[in-house]
Amino acid sequence: MKNMLKVVEVLKPVVLMVVVQIANAWVNVLYKLAVNDGMSLRVVVAYRYIFATAFIAPLAYILERKTRTKMTCTILFQSFLCGLFGGALPQNLQMEALALTSVTFATAISNLVPAITFILSLSFGMERLNLRKAAGKAKIIGTLTGIGGAMLMTFYRGVQVNILSFHINLFNNNHNNHPKSHGSGSGSGGLFLLGALSSFSSNASYALWLIIQAKMSRAYPYPYSSTALMCVMGAILSVTFTFCLERDLSQWKLGWNVRLLTVAYAGIVVSGIMVAVISWCVRMRGPLFVSVFSPLMLVVVAFAGSTILDENLYLGSIMGSLLIVCGLYLVLWGKSKEMVKNQLVPSKSDKLEIVVKSQDSLKNNGGEEDRVTLTHMHHNNRTEKEGEQN
């Protein structure tokens, strides 16, 4: 029974991150439906964080009001950075990429997040590049393999593969209102390059948020409260940005239609529940572990598109999916090896407390114990020599 509980505890972050990617993939499908209905994507982002704040703020107050520590200026500033780099900025840049390129292309470019996160983690000293060890090589090869598989899914089609016998086309009308999904882009070359730059900038911002979130999680280990703070900041920034650029007030009207479903799902499920799950996983396994699951979203989008959005599935999508899964397992294997090694090797700052009892101490201190604290350092020989001289 204990072994089973240990297995469940180890697999919990993996299962949760798979659920996160599936939820993020479905929100892309809803985005396409909302655009097809004529809704402004900037308004979608603003409503997304408004709904997320309304959902997660009361939950954070109820669940963490007794354990939550006092708010500091540092935590508040980190929350603002999370709301900027993990909320308003990447979401609006991603929406511009969706409008200027295609959903498939923007989703594929999002798989650069592991590489960007790995580079930023190296810069901040949160990850170590050790090519002499098998774990370090696995992380590098796995990240590159996953990104290569994502690119293969986008830029190589191959023959069409019919896996399922049914297709449901949810775009019944207004086909010209939503971006067309294809491999290389749409529109003029200049607009496509601008959209590609927007997509890359969005994922760079998201990778930076993972680093900031890891720092914030250590100082403020309350996932619901940190998520609520991020959503509040994201809502303020998104609403301000949208009101500056979107002057048509009719875009803010919601009814019992796909618009309400999109913003409610994006706000409550994706920006509320899923961000809290991501924060917990970052605190447990680190930012690189979270980012390597990003390619799974492209796999789900490819299969959902072929069955729900009446998009064709090609051999390149299947081959890319296999590469993504292989790369994912390589990175997870490397991370697991490093975690085991870090648990076995004692830290440099570990202290060993030795209790020394002597007759003099018993007489002079009334039975109290003389305690000597030794700190493990690299210069053990020097410490021993100094002890002998004294």
Automatic annotation (TrEMBL):
<dbReference type="Pfam" id="PF00892">
    <property type="entry name" value="EamA"/>
</dbReference>
<dbReference type="InterPro" id="IPR000620">
    <property type="entry name" value="EamA_dom"/>
</dbReference>
<feature type="transmembrane region" description="Helical">
    <location>
        <begin position="138"/>
        <end position="156"/>
    </location>
</feature>
<feature type="transmembrane region" description="Helical">
    <location>
        <begin position="191"/>
        <end position="212"/>
    </location>
</feature>
<dbReference type="InterPro" id="IPR037185">
    <property type="entry name" value="EmrE-like"/>
</dbReference>
<feature type="domain" description="EamA">
    <location>
        <begin position="14"/>
        <end position="153"/>
    </location>
</feature>
<dbReference type="InterPro" id="IPR030184">
    <property type="entry name" value="WAT1-related"/>
</dbReference>
<feature type="transmembrane region" description="Helical">
    <location>
        <begin position="288"/>
        <end position="308"/>
    </location>
</feature>
<feature type="transmembrane region" description="Helical">
    <location>
        <begin position="75"/>
        <end position="93"/>
    </location>
</feature>
<feature type="transmembrane region" description="Helical">
    <location>
        <begin position="224"/>
        <end position="243"/>
    </location>
</feature>
<feature type="domain" description="EamA">
    <location>
        <begin position="194"/>
        <end position="332"/>
    </location>
</feature>
<comment type="similarity">
    <text>Belongs to the drug/metabolite transporter (DMT) superfamily. Plant drug/metabolite exporter (P-DME) (TC 2.A.7.4) family.</text>
</comment>
<feature type="compositionally biased region" description="Basic and acidic residues">
    <location>
        <begin position="381"/>
        <end position="390"/>
    </location>
</feature>
<feature type="transmembrane region" description="Helical">
    <location>
        <begin position="46"/>
        <end position="63"/>
    </location>
</feature>
<keyword id="KW-0472">Membrane</keyword>
<feature type="transmembrane region" description="Helical">
    <location>
        <begin position="7"/>
        <end position="26"/>
    </location>
</feature>
<feature type="transmembrane region" description="Helical">
    <location>
        <begin position="314"/>
        <end position="333"/>
    </location>
</feature>
<feature type="transmembrane region" description="Helical">
    <location>
        <begin position="263"/>
        <end position="281"/>
    </location>
</feature>
<keyword id="KW-0812">Transmembrane</keyword>
<keyword id="KW-1133">Transmembrane helix</keyword>
<feature type="region of interest" description="Disordered">
    <location>
        <begin position="362"/>
        <end position="390"/>
    </location>
</feature>
<protein>
    <recommendedName>
        <fullName>WAT1-related protein</fullName>
    </recommendedName>
</protein>
<feature type="transmembrane region" description="Helical">
    <location>
        <begin position="105"/>
        <end position="126"/>
    </location>
</feature>
